[in-house]
Write a structure and sequence with these properties.
With 559 residues, this protein is an alpha+beta fold. Among the domains are: 60 residues, no CATH class; 158 residues, no CATH class. Helices cover 42% and strands 17% of the residues. It has a 4-stranded mixed β-sheet with strand order 4-3-7-8. A 3-stranded antiparallel β-sheet has the order 5-10-9, with helices on both faces. The longest helix is centred in the middle third of the chain and has 22 residues. The chain is globular, with a radius of gyration of 26 Å. It starts with 5 loop residues before the first helix and ends with a helix.
């Protein structure tokens, strides 16, 4: 958010014209990167397309409405889904798809989830909001507010399990005295978060008990993904990005992007393809409707973004489709899926697209790549093996926004070779350029600078390490007091047993409860033992070496 930085865009346009002969607006008008582009031109087009794409408007009502309209349209299509197999190949693909899902959910012929007790023992709370809770932390959700869920069965199971643990049982007794019995709600609560200049992203707030059990199921599904498909959700995005790089070089891998991927997994589809016990479990944990501004909409998709099992479930569904497409060729290649980011061997691309279409999924042709020098997956854009991922200026209102943009542009220059000194001169006047920080630090805290190029006296070498200054975000914390506490105009009585459980679970600190997105930036002194260490596979410095960054900083800031 913030006022559109016309001076920054003008300076960037000057840099791009010098580099490739086209202005910012001219490069934006390219519908796609021409296959015969040079690396410099491809990089410039990528930057022009991305730079303002996600700049957040001050008033997002138009974007929210666009998102709501799209969500309801996709939901209606999900309700109308029917299986239509037209050829023998369709039948073969669909049969293999269902067989893979059966084997996934029945390891060794036994159900993956033995009982709801497994979900309870693996359960946890997410960092976001829950219906009925004034804050997103574990203590407030489970011991300082009313518990919410969609069925009496969930309440009964939770309370019967809680009684197995004396401290938790006592915590629930204290909670119920102050906040009453758990409350049944029928719907999740729809809201929107910024996504791009044209459309917002939808997210649904779930009831607290549903979310706890949903995340318990997610934990089990995540473990099974590792053992069955060799998909580790903690690292798969890096693998997919590498396959995108390989595909851009030799066409061996294709990448597929889906429109509203999670929203197109309909209840009807999963009733058709999942084992009955798995389908019944998902239905028992989901919200059957969502509410927005007083209107309730029945959900025909199995789950929304915000549901705790959505991400691993869609990974499973799409991974089974990829494997089914390989089986149709009698091949056993690696299955590489991360949510709705799909990398597939190119020989199976068309059959996978056909299987996705049968399931009601919509392949985004403009962002799916089967042939040619470009591939994108998991935040990595590769052109002939080189990362040309642009940068996204989401807001330009604070000092921290300027620092983040300077660091992003330096990283982009380092990996593409494009010199951006005009826009850097424009930005450097908006910050304290003497605030130089290590390469691994928060990019909003200062200017990331290779140690060999540090010029400020604020950085000094000592026997205890390198001392430097930076901005740090200090989240506001609410201290838990024996007299109770006020949170968002609600009084929350003290629950000592609940605090004990939260502390033992690592979800509460002696300093208090962190309040989401509340706090302030503060300048402070720090020290580190190694300045130039950073992960070159992720973030702003993906695919960048120290030497490349030194060159970019030299030409951008000092030439």
């Amino acid at each position: 958010m913030g006022i559109l930085p016309v001076d920054v865009i003008s300076a960037l346009s000057d840099d791009l014209r010098k580099a490739v002969g086209f202005s910012f607006e001219e490069l934006k008008s390219f519908p796609a990167i021409p296959p015969d582009s040079s690396h410099r031109l491809a990089s410039a087009i990528s930057l022009a397309h991305s730079f303002m794409k996600k700049f957040l408007p001050q008033d997002s009502r138009e974007q929210d409405l666009a998102c709501l309209t799209k969500l309801l349209k996709v939901n209606m299509a999900s309700g109308a889904w029917e299986l239509r197999l037209n050829t023998g190949l369709d039948e073969e693909l669909w049969g293999s798809f269902k067989q893979e899902l059966y084997k996934f959910f029945n390891p060794g012929g036994l159900p993956l989830v033995g009982s709801w007790d497994d979900l309870f023992l693996n359960g946890r709370v997410g960092p976001g909001s829950s219906i009925g809770a004034p804050n997103g932390d574990f203590y407030t959700k489970f011991f300082g507010s009313v518990l919410t869920c969609t069925s009496q069965g969930l309440i009964d199971h939770y309370q019967s399990n809680v009684r197995r643990f004396s401290e938790w049982s006592n915590a629930e007794s204290i909670r119920s005295q102050h906040h009453s019995s758990p409350r049944i709600v029928q719907s999740s609560r729809l809201s929107f978060v910024p996504k791009s200049v044209t459309i917002s992203r939808s997210i649904c707030t779930e009831p607290s008990l549903n979310m706890y059990y949903q995340l318990g199921l997610a934990q089990i599904l995540t473990g099974r993904l590792r053992s069955y498909f060799s998909i580790d959700l903690s690292s798969q995005s890096v693998k997919n990005a590498e396959l995108a790089r390989l595909g851009s070089v030799d066409d061996s891998w294709s990448t597929i992007d889906l429109e509203s991927a999670s929203d197109t997994l309909s209840v009807n589809l999963l009733r058709e393809v999942l084992p009955r016990d798995v389908f019944d479990l998902l239905v028992s944990l989901r919200c059957k409707s969502l509410s927005y501004q007083g209107t309730v909409h029945e959900l025909h998709m199995i789950s929304t973004m915000g549901n705790g099992f959505t991400f691993p479930l869609q990974t499973i569904i799409f991974a089974a489709m990829v494997k089914a497409s390989y089986i149709s060729y009698n091949q056993r290649d690696p299955v590489c899926v991360f949510g709705d980011d799909i990398a597939v061997k190119s020989y199976a691309y068309h059959r996978l697209c056909r299987l996705l279409s049968l399931a009601g999924c919509i392949v985004n042709e403009a962002k799916s790549f089967h042939k040619g020098p470009f591939r994108e997956s998991c935040g990595a854009d590769y052109f002939l093996g080189r990362n040309i991922r642009g940068i996204y200026m989401k807001r330009f209102a604070t000092l921290q926004d300027s620092y983040a943009l300077i660091n992003a542009l330096n990283g982009f220059s380092a990996k593409t070779g494009l010199i951006l000194n005009s826009v850097m001169n424009c930005l450097i006047g908006k910050v304290d350029k003497s605030l130089e920080i290590p390469l691994w630090e928060d990019p909003s805290g200062g200017i990331r600078m290779p140690l060999s190029m540090v010029r400020t006296r604020r950085v000094s070498e000592t026997t205890h390490g390198t001392i430097y200054s930076k901005y740090s975000f200090k989240a506001r914390k609410l201290r838990i007091r024996t007299s109770g506490m006020w949170l968002n105009r609600r009084y929350i009585p003290y629950n000592p047993s609940g605090l004990h459980i939260a502390f033992l679970s690592g979800m509460a600190l002696s300093s208090g409860l962190p309040l989401r997105e509340e706090g302030r930036w503060k300048k402070e002194r720090r020290s580190c033992s190694y300045w130039d260490s950073f992960d070159s596979t992720i973030g702003l410095l993906a695919d960048v070496s120290i030497r490349q960054l030194e060159t970019a900083v030299h030409f951008n800031l000092y030439s």
